[in-house]
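Internal tracking record. Fields below are filled automatically when a chain is submitted to the structure queue. Please do not edit lines marked as system-generated. If the sequence contains nonstandard residues, flag them in the REMARKS field before resubmitting.
Queue: standard
Priority: normal
Entity type: single polypeptide chain
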Amino acid sequence: MKKNTVLWSADEQKILSQLKTPKKIQDYLDAVDYSAESVYRSPRSVMRDRKAHCFDGAVFAAAALRTIGFPPLILDMQAVRDDDHVLAVFKRNGCWGAIAKSNFAGLRFREPIHRTLRELVMTYFEPFYNLNREKTLRQYTVPVNLSAYDRLSWTTNDAAMDPIGERLGTVKIHKLMTPAMIRGLHPVDLRAYEAGMLGANMAGIYDPNKK
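SYSTEM-GENERATED OUTPUT FOLLOWS
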């Protein structure tokens, strides 16, 4: 795939030049602060502010993946009584992997070893839970290719984030479970719950008990 041409600043080019693999992109996202703010940041703003939440992080990762030859793809994992979680997905040797910024320890990088997107998404099921220890993941979207938003300069323009977010709400979804399966789900055990919360910024966590 042809790499896109973006007028990155010298400082931005220096950062991106160091992110030569998907894992290095993940490492960069892990090193920036988790944003509890209800604002969207473009990849440029993520590098400037060194902050991101899951949407910002996925879009940043898609931009960084594009610079090393991958298509800029994101998908949305949708939940009940919880926040959604957005991934940047990539394919290597015919298998899918993912990069993500998350407040939860278990919702970040996935190695490209998954034969289908459903197989990839299901690895997030057990560690995807809310403060009531409910397993909340229910469905996921088909990937959105962000090259469709090049006209909006999505890599450098914060205003382009809203249309991308809106698009994730309109594309085809795949449900993961039947109603009977959902009724039979068990709460997350306390040990797994505490492990997943390690290092979390509580200000940025959805509280299902607040209306």
